Amino acid sequence: MRDEVKTPYGGAVPDTPDPISEAHRQWSARWPEHADHMAAVTSVMRAQQLLLSRIEAVLKPHGLTFAAYEALRLLAFTRTGTLPMGKMGTRLMVHPASVTNVIGRLERRGLVGRAPSPDDRRVVLATITPAGRDLAEEATVALNEAGFGIAALPAERAAEITAALRAVRVSVGELSDE
Amino acid sequence: MRDEVKTPYGGAVPDTPDPISEAHRQWSARWPEHADHMAAVTSVMRAQQLLLSRIEAVLKPHGLTFAAYEALRLLAFTRTGTLPMGKMGTRLMVHPASVTNVIGRLERRGLVGRAPSPDDRRVVLATITPAGRDLAEEATVALNEAGFGIAALPAERAAEITAALRAVRVSVGELSDE
DNA sequence: GGAAACTATTTTAACTTCCAAATATTGGAT
DNA sequence: ATCCAATATTTGGAAGTTAAAATAGTTTCC
Fold first, then answer.
1. Which residue is nearest to nucleotide D20 (CA to C1')?
2. In the predicted structure, residue B4 carries a pLDDT above the cut 80
3. Which residues are CB-contacts of A167 (< 8 A; sequence separation ≥ 6)?
4. Chain A partners within 8 Å of B169 (Cβ)
5. pLDDT range class, residue B6, cuts 50, 70, 90
6. Residue A83 phi/psi, 5° resolution?
7. Is the Cα torsion angle A61, A146, A55, B21 positive or negative in sign?
8. Residues A40-77, buried b or exposed e (16+ Cβ, 10 A)?
9. Which of A17, A58, B15, B113 has its CA 20 to 30 A from that of A94?
10. Inter-chain contact A37–B91, Cβ cutoff 8 Å?
């Protein structure tokens, strides 16, 4: 009886020992000075894919995608539980259209309410409902218990990743160097 | 005259100095033992978003998305320029349906051809055309020149990222520890 | 030789993202 | 007072993703 783990696709298994080292070698042959950059970018892409797939698996039983979870958590972390749509886009760093989309779906499920701002009628305020708060809390507990998909990774390794990637954010100008 | 860079959304600017440190602080207050994992995962997500947006900006003038570029490059790197659809999915680590999708679009543009395998008629072979090769080469040069979106990052920093993320791939079981 | 099991690809359907183009609303300059 | 430029959100459309089901072809094993 085979085990048949039913991996979601983020868990697909490569057919070479380490596809990234492999690609690095290939690149080195023709563009040696760019091979490290290529490998770093590919690593980020692949890590993101793996992590996202694990996180969504944790969230799925709670009926949330990662995008929905982030939106809900953002509102839950706000004192009043309310934020203008535009502000949410900035904080989550996603396109305004995406915010409209996610909040629309959360609204239909009664997890978030939507109302025009009294101060500026162009602005729409999203507000988390009690049900939304409960779900956010529940999902957060689940994610923590799952160690965000990398429970097996020692905390120091995790911190190294954050540090190494800070350089990317700085280089791209998201962060001031300081 | 303001500069108005017209940032694609990956380039949105946060409104706090470092949103990730911020989140780490928030998390530490309630779930100290998970804060590092949370921050690492968030960093990967954010870095991916930033890099993808820069890379797609480089690719756009050539009429390619990143997914399309990867498929084309994979074929171009093959000696014969031909690969079964399934194999492409494995190599690129994407769902078979995505391969069908991307190859379909490339085929319509004459960059790739498609034909059933003579050996096994379940199998469909994708083959890069001369036009496809030219475009792949052109796009690769552009990406190299742009340093894959992180030209400003010293090669050593790039290598650190690859090393740090290898731990994720190992922890998730994509790679054997060796 | 034929039924059953497995494999490869495509289709369908549900989501997500982003961009570009409306639509409103506000606020500043004349 | 009004016109014009900026701002906030939504809509519509192209792409990409995955899961699940449908189709077709191959193998395996009595």
1. B97
2. no
3. B153, B157, B160, B161
4. 20, 43, 46-47, 50
5. very low
6. -155, 145
7. positive
8. bbbbbbbbbbbbbbbbbebbeebebebbbbbbbbbbbe
9. A58
10. no
**C-alpha separations of A19 from A42, A43, A174, B6, B81 in Å:** 10, 10, 30, 35, 19
Task: Say whether the CB atom of B145 is under 7 angstroms from strand D.
Answer: no
What are the structure tokens assigned to B160, written together?
Answer: 């650190």
Share of chain B above pLDDT 90, in %: 76
CA distances from B137 to A33, A55, A70, B130, B144 (A): 17, 36, 39, 11, 11
CA of B122 to C1' of C1 (A): 22
The whole-model pTM stands at: 0.88
Q: Is the pLDDT of residue B3 over 90?
A: no
Which residue on chain B is closest to A53 by alpha carbon? Answer: B172
Q: A48, A90, A140, A143: best mutation site toward chain B, by most B Cβ within 10 Å?
A: A48
